[in-house]
Design brief:
five-stranded antiparallel beta sheet; Hypothetical Protein Tm1070, Chain: A; 3 helices; globular; 2 domains
Length: 340
C-alpha cells in the first residue's frame, strides 16, 4: 500500500532514513520542487540529508516502509545540543487533530514541532490555564512551540504530525536531548508491555501516562493500582486529563486499565549526559481515504490547498515508469471537510 511521510529541518545536520519491509519498492523524495527516486528491496535502507529550507519534505513510497528522522546537532532554544537524536515517524495516514504534549521530569524548556501536509492548518494551543493562543500554519510547513514545565494541549482543524524535542544538560536539564513522536489522543491504547533497555541500571527510568481524569483511578502497573494524587491536571477542549509520571524498574512491566479505557504512555530515561525516550505504542489506524489524484484534484478544497510539489508529483507519475509496473498515482487525502 502507498505510504507518505513528512520530514522537516531547520539545520544542515538533519537526515532521513527509509527502510523497506518488502521487495520492489520505489521511494520518491520531494525537496525544493525536485524529485529523487531510489528502488529498495526487502531489508534495504536508504539514508539522505534533508535541506534546511525550513519547509517540509515529502517522501512517498509505493509499498511498506519505515521512516526515521535523525538530528546530528539539535538546535533547541538557541542552543546547539551536539548529540545524535532520532525517532521513527508516523505515516501521514495516522496523523491526528488532538494532542497532549506532556511535561517530563528532568526536562524543561522543551519544544514541540507541528508539521502540516498539503493544506493550511489552524491550531489552538493551551496549557489548561489562561495561556491560550491560536496559530496558522501554511501547507508543507511546520511551526516550533516552546514550553517550560506545564503540559500542553493542541487541537488542529486538519490532521498534523507532532514531534517533541527534549533538551539536554546544556539547557540546565539532565541527560542528552532526545526526540519523540507525540501520538494523537485517538491513537492511545488500553495497555502496554515494556522493559527499559538492559545495561542501563544506572539510569533513571520513567513512564509518563496521559489519561482522561474520570478514568485515572483505574490505571494499573504490574497489577497494582496507581496513586493519582500527584498527577498534573489539564483541562482542555477535548475534556479533562491527568498526566502522571512514574519511576519504573528495568524488569518487564505491564500497564493496563481495569475498565479497558485508552491512555497514552511515554517511556524515557536519562543519566548524566545520556538520555532516550519514545512512546510505548500507538494505534496507526486513523480516519483517512486513499484517492486517485484525478478525483482529488476535482474538489474545490484540493484545488485551493494542493501545492506545486503535488502537481509536479502527479505529472511525473501519471503514466507507467520504466519497469512498466506503476499504475496511476495515489495520495492520502486528509481534508477533514470531505470526511463525511
Amino acid at each position: 500500500m502507498p505510504m507518505q511521510f513528512m520530514f522537516s529541518s531547520v539545520s544542515a545536520y538533519t537526515q532521513g532514513l527509509i527502510a523497506s519491509s518488502m521487495d520492489d519498492v520505489r521511494i520518491d523524495i520531494h525537496s525544493n520542487n525536485n524529485i529523487f527516486s531510489v528502488d529498495l528491496d526487502k531489508y534495504q535502507t536508504y539514508q539522505f540529508r534533508l535541506n534546511n529550507s525550513g519547509f517540509d519534505q515529502l517522501v512517498y513510497s509505493n509499498g511498506s516502509v519505515t521512516a526515521l528522522y535523525e538530528e546530528n546537532l539539535l538546535y533547541i532554544n538557541s542552543t546547539n545540543d551536539s548529540d545524535l537524536a532520532f525517532e521513527q515517524l508516523q505515516p501521514i495516514k495516522s496523523w491526528g487533530t488532538t494532542f497532549i504534549i506532556p511535561s517530563l521530569i528532568g526536562k524543561s524548556n522543551n519544544v514541540f514541532r507541528i508539521t502540516t501536509g498539503n493544506y493550511s492548518v489552524r491550531i489552538l494551543i493551551n496549557n489548561g490555564t489562561h495561556h491560550q493562543r491560536s496559530e496558522y500554519i501554511l501547507p508543507f510547513n511546520f511551526k516550533d512551540i516552546y514550553f517550560k514545565t506545564s503540559s500542553m494541549f493542541l487541537q488542529s482543524d486538519k490532521p498534523v504530525q507532532v514531534v517533541q524535542f527534549c533538551t539536554s544538560y546544556v539547557n540546565g536539564n539532565t541527560g542528552d536531548p532526545f526526540i519523540t513522536v507525540v501520538p494523537p489522543l485517538t491513537s492511545f491504547l488500553t495497555g502496554y508491555i515494556f522493559k527499559p533497555m538492559d545495561g542501563l541500571n544506572t539510569f533513571n527510568h520513567y513512564v509518563t501516562l496521559t489519561v482522561e481524569s474520570k478514568y485515572a483511578s483505574g490505571l494499573l502497573l504490574n497489577d497494582k493500582s496507581l496513586s493519582i494524587q500527584r498527577a498534573e491536571p489539564l483541562s482542555t477542549q477535548a475534556g479533562s486529563y491527568k498526566i502522571l509520571t512514574l519511576v519504573v524498574s528495568t524488569t518487564t512491566n505491564i500497564l493496563c486499565h481495569v475498565g479497558g479505557h485508552e491512555f497514552g504512555a511515554l517511556l524515557y530515561g536519562y543519566y548524566s549526559a545520556t538520555a532516550y525516550g519514545y512512546p510505548l505504542g500507538m494505534k496507526l489506524s486513523a480516519d483517512y481515504r486513499v484517492e486517485d489524484t484525478e478525483d482529488l484534484l476535482k474538489t474545490e478544497d484540493a484545488q485551493s490547498n494542493i501545492s506545486e510539489e503535488i502537481f509536479l508529483f502527479r505529472q511525473i507519475y501519471r503514466g507507467p515508469n520504466e519497469r512498466g509496473k506503476r499504475d496511476s498515482m495515489h495520495i492520502i487525502s486528509l481534508n477533514t471537510a470531505n470526511k463525511e
